[in-house]
């Protein structure tokens, strides 16, 4: 396999985060003066897979074993002096691994059996109605349509709360109650289904993207899915992949959300970190501030699948916190 680092001319250095920096060869081809400050960088995610970013002209490229050399990667390698015959050989060698990698990925997914036990809702639970004014006002204050989901309330509870049924394949597998008073705990959960992802039953077959967020109300405010925590498990990743569409993870804009970004990259999902106002901490906050449509547009416009761009957005969020 091609050793791209062997084609670096001049000085290079590798920092603690894994970036190998050198004078970027792309700048003179993109309207900039020649780089003399080592602003080009490679980062390897495995022995074979790499990403490149120029912190001067902004050029990016990447290579993943099992896929052909992309046009941008081909240009970069050519600028570095790699002969065309070596680049073509790299594509041929890479494609030999395609079927092997696909088989391994499918086998890993098959090993994770996804099934959640059915759970009975409390016998004293009922659907909310027009008389449940505090519950309706709470949902509307969060810019959520009270009638777009079967919200319930448990008449046996002494604290006012909204019960949200959890379903998977249209079977109830758990539920959570969000209490409306200021006492703790705020939530009462009844879901023993490890690896559950909320909202998969709400996704339409013709949708090309599923937006994955942390909280249930975040998901309900934009028709997304909720991890219900700031970490993604193997089972949850498998559930998301079975939606057969691009998964765009939108973390809460706090320290805990940085962990969700790391997991999204680990499982190969896209990430979106919109530049919202400083006091807008999650998707539901954004919907309340900007409206549902504007929030969705900001998420789509800021989504990235490039590991380099995701890392840059993550660092920008970290500086903001």
Cα-atom radius of gyration: 24 Å
CATH topology of the largest domain: Dna Topoisomerase Vi A Subunit, Chain: A, domain 2
Number of DSSP strand runs: 15
Q: Classify the beta-strand content into a percent band.
A: 15-25%
The geometry reads as elongated
C-alpha termini separation? 41 Å
Helical stretch tally? 10
Q: Give the domain tally.
A: 2
- Structural class category: alpha+beta
| Name of the CATH first level of the largest domain | Alpha Beta
Q: Which spans of ≥5 residues are poorly predicted at pLDDT below 50?
A: none
| Mean pLDDT across all amino acids | 90
Largest sheet features:
5 strands, antiparallel
Share in helix: 25-40%
**Order of helix and strand elements from N to C terminus:** EEEEEHHHEHEEEEEHEHEHEHHEH
CATH architecture of the largest domain, by name, is 3-Layer(aba) Sandwich
Strand order of the largest sheet: 1-2-3-4-5
